Amino acid sequence: MLFGLLVLVFGLLIWGKIRYDLIAFSALILAIVIGVVPEENAFDGFGHHATVIIALVLIVSRGLSNSGAIELVAKFVISAGRSLFAHISIMSGVAAGLSALMNNVAALALLMPIDIQAAAKAKRSPSLTLMPLSFASILGGLITLIGTPPNIIIASFREKAVGEPFGMFDFSPVGIVAAMGGLVFVALVGWRLIPQVAGSQSVGNAIFKIQEYISEVRVGEKSLLIGKKIRELDDLGENADVAIIGLVRQGKRFAGHARGEMVRKGDLLVIESAAANIDTFVGENALEYVGSEKHDSLVGEDLSFVEVVVPEGARIEGRTALSVKLLYRHGVTLLGVSRQGKAFRDRVRKLAIKSGDVLLLLGPSERVNDVAIWLGGLPLKARDLQVVQRNKAWIAVGSFSVAIMATTMGLLHLPAALAIVCIVMVAFNIVPIREIYTSIEWPVIVLLGSMIPIGAALEASGGTALIAQVILDFAAGYGPLVVLTLLMVVTMTLSDVLNNTATTVIAAPIAIDIAGRLGVSPDPFLMAVAIAASCAFLTPIGHKNNTLIMGPGGYRFGDYWRMGLPLEVIVIAISIPMITIVWPF
After folding, report:
1. Cα–Cα dist 529/468, whole Å
2. Which of 30, 133, 265, 374 is the most exposed, fewest CB within 10 Å of its CB?
3. Measured between alpha carbons, how far is 359 from 308 in angstroms, rounded to an integer?
4. For domain 295-379, is the CATH number 3.30.565.10?
5. Where are the alpha helices (DSSP H) in 42-103?
6. DSSP state of 192
7. Could you tell me if 511 and 525 are in contact, meaning their C-beta atoms sit under 8 angstroms apart?
8. What sign has the CA pseudo-torsion 254, 255, 257, 260?
9. Residue 515: which of 127, 157, 80 has the closest Cα?
10. Across all residues in the chain, what is the average pLDDT?
């Protein structure tokens, strides 16, 4: 029954049409109903050490970001005048270093806008650097306990198996060597394997492929376009570098380009263009932004555009601008959406937003950035360092450093140490109270809290022992080294199509069972699962960082494996001998 439930869960996760936290929680409830998870233990996962630590790490990461310490370091090492090789080498090193000390998703979120700005200044496509940046941030998470959720989960399974969890830097000997090997490949060879279709824009052209938004603008009563047919507007659109691709009248979108329709007052023109060109087209033809006729905040001179990428788990993901009442509650309109160059038939404000989409928001300058953050989006332009709390950077860095030292010396358990850091950051308003809960990726918490009881039930029922026996039978006669390699390959493959948290929860007890059957230490097998579950480089769905760069980089689903496959092979080739040296059988 549990295997059938897991097959259903994995199938739905790979399908990707339903959010992973909803799938996991529904599976947990179903497991309770059919009796495979005891009701008294059903929600133990939400109070599990791993779940609590991940939530605290995310709050600490927000504090390090808000203090400005991270951005100051990043700004200091970034220069548009460097060669592409030098830029990728330095940015990859910074990303890996940050990911070792904070959540790797947060590290990428901090560096991605800076990398995009550097690409703009150097007049090159960001697609050449964003994938190396993402992969480097994933590699950096291998180095410490708090770098990535799989390490935290593995530590908790080790405590259950041998009575003591992995420490903060127990992952470092293997993690540093694997990360360094991966970074050398990324900097020297990897970025050259990114297909030209993703990054082939010439120097003189638009730097960002994602600047081509599909937007809607209203024909006002004073518009110069009233009475003209759509096909007669081609010259005007060409002059402003705008393509008129459709017409909406009284809520109905005309099929095709509505080439023969005559423009009327109140019509909406569906256009495709860069943000700056949209504004020029609107001004030259006396058009209006959608919503300005009903909301005064969109009328006036103090308006700003903000471009944001939608990460997985954002408030706006799966919802529409209309359903979150973006305009009516916040006075900000969703002007355009870029979806990796894909067209869509829905109205912009009625379009269900997906992770990886890039949104073009228009609103009052003093409000639009806050609204973008409220939606859960990540601005593509680097934030001004003058507005962060640089005078409190020493408090954030100091408290975090003391907590890490206390944990390393055995004075405090990691959850307690991180909780103290969070309290300090809130007390000094580095993390405002309103940001405490928004800092936590609740879908990840729900996923982990739901999967831990299912994983425990699989172990108690003998399911993990059965899987372990299949692996052992397959590698019969080859010894523990081959079994270790096979476990790592299987785990890494699963992580490429599933969430790395779910993969770890299932693979960790299998690793412990295999070690028990071989009569060897579980440490090398747990370490192999930790490395493999984190290294998802083949697809944009294997790791959140890969999803995050898909829109801004203009990548397609099949672009990732070209650099990702050799990188995974390198990580396995380096990790296996290092694991056997540092954590012998």
Report:
1. 13
2. 265
3. 5
4. no
5. 49-66, 69-77, 84-101
6. G
7. yes
8. negative
9. 157
10. 84
Fold agreement between 209-289 and 295-379 = yes
Q: Where are the domains of the chain?
A: 2-200+436-582, 209-289, 295-379
Burial of 410 (0-12, 13-18, 19+ CB in 10 A): exposed
Residue type, 466: L
- Amino acid letter at 382? A
Contact by Cβ (8 Å): 298, 328 = no
Strand partners, 304: 363
pLDDT in tens, 254-271: 755 567 888 898 888 888
pLDDT at 301 over 60: no
Which residues partner with 271 through β-bridges?
215, 244
In the CATH scheme, what is the homologous superfamily, with its name and number, of domain 209-289? Regulator of K+ conductance, C-terminal domain (3.30.70.1450)
pLDDT confidence band for 294 (50 / 70 / 90): low
Residue matched to tokens 């308006």? 303
- Residue 208's pLDDT is 42
Instruction: Specify burial of residue 164 (Cβ count, 10 A radius: 0-12, 13-18, 19+).
Output: exposed
Residue 85, number of CB atoms within 10 A of its CB: 12
Name the pairing type of β-strands 243-249 and 358-364: unpaired
Q: Which of 110, 177, 171 is nearest to 146 (CA)?
A: 171
pLDDT-based confidence at residue 513 (cuts at 50, 70, 90): very high
User: In the numeric block, which tokens belong to residue 92?
Assistant: 């990859």
Report CA-CA distances (Å) from 545 to 9, 115, 257, 399: 22, 14, 36, 27
* Cross-strand pairs, 303: 364
Residue holding tokens 């096979």?
486
